[in-house]
Amino acid sequence: MSRPVRPARRTEKITYAVRDVVLWAEEAAAAGREILYLNIGDPNLFDFETPPHIVEATCAALRANKNGYAPSSGIREAREAIERDNARKGISGIVHTFVTTGSSEAIDLAMAALVDPGDNVLLPSPGYPLYPAVMARFGGEARPYALDEASGWQPDLESIRRGIDERTKALVVINPNNPTGSVTGPEVLRELIAIALEHDLVLFSDEIYDRLVFEPGSFTATASLSSEAKIITLHGLSKVFVAPGFRLGWASISGPADELGDYCEAIRKLERARLSANHPEQYAVAPALDGPMDFLAGVVGKLRARRDLVVERLNEAPGISCVAPQGAFYAFPKIEVPISDVEFCRKVVRETGVVIVPGSGFGALAGAGHFRLVFLPREDVLARALDRIVEVARALV
């Protein structure tokens, strides 16, 4: 007798708030509303384009028939360019660099090689929802630590220390942060490194937005501050280089080689088991990292103007306040209304067509009572969206 297929229990707790809200948007569209998407950080959906030299490098690889499998860790040209870029940022002592299908796969492989069922990893809250989803797959515990809104969403060091026990394997920092846009400076990063060293933790430093900062010189690569800590630096082409569809990311592991050898070999086993990352796109890595960066001035200039518009409008609105993001292209406003963040966002989407994401989708500690919006759209579109959000909030206060 046939029965329904029972899905694995590990899938029960997997959610991804950024895309889950699309179901509400579909309802609003069916009701005839104009949909303004402020939920997904995809710059190519708006007035941002992949730099031509990056596109041409990929096209040249395609024409040259670089269309077979790549080496499992990535082509030599890409890995060497990544390590040159790391050196320019002050990162030394790299033990292993590997290229992946988006930085998401780098996170996946590095966690899979590290975490056994019952282990825990400290994750920022608010933080990128991919990390707890990955932990759920591997039977590990996603243990949140707080980011402090009153200090500009900086990591709460005491919250981190309270979360560490004998099963803690790693500490994750996202800098600049998604969803808050906060930038963690060198003083706090040194404190995080000290905690990692004291408790022998692997420190994941997700730096995918590192060049999208609004104060020049405000970003510091975590691994540039220590040659003793075991640090995984994560990056890719998707955000800074405006190529999320390339699905091309990477990770570099730095620290004491004698203590990282077995771990790196475990990652290499996983790399080989999945064959390789996208091949032609890997030929864009060296042109991206070694080539012209003049396009960034225009990208950051547009983002800064749009950030300013969002922060000004929301801080003038009843029931809403917003810490100014210092990097990336997200804002994480606080709402003081008599309904939950999920109900507020559902109401905004269904009644106005503006798609925003509940803050609770980004972590348990500091997410509730907030929402995330993406400020990638042009100012005229953002202004219309903000008008609608403010209208809903005003009616509730």
Key phrases:
Aspartate Aminotransferase, domain 2, Aspartate Aminotransferase, domain 1, 8-stranded mixed beta sheet, single chain, 13 helices, 3-stranded antiparallel beta sheet, 2 domains
Describe what is shown at a glance:
This protein is of the alpha/beta class and 397 residues long.
Give the uncertain stretches in residue-range form.
Answer: none
For the record, the count of structural domains works out to: 2
- CATH fold call of the largest domain: Aspartate Aminotransferase, domain 2
What count of helical segments does DSSP give? 13
Assembly status = single chain
The helix-and-strand class reads: alpha/beta
Fold blueprint:
Blueprint: H1 17-20, H2 22-30, E1 36-37, H3 52-63, H4 76-88, E2 94-100, H5 102-112, E3 120-125, H6 130-138, E4 141-148, E5 154-155, H7 157-162, E6 168-174, H8 186-199, E7 202-206, E8 230-236, E9 249-254, H9 257-273, H10 285-290, H11 295-315, E10 320-321, E11 330-331, E12 334-335, H12 341-352, E13 354-355, E14 357-358, E15 371-374, H13 379-396
Parallel strand pairs: 1-13, 3-4, 3-6, 6-7, 7-8
Antiparallel strand pairs: 2-9, 4-5, 8-9, 10-12, 11-15, 14-15
Helix pairs in contact: 2-12, 5-6, 11-13, 12-13
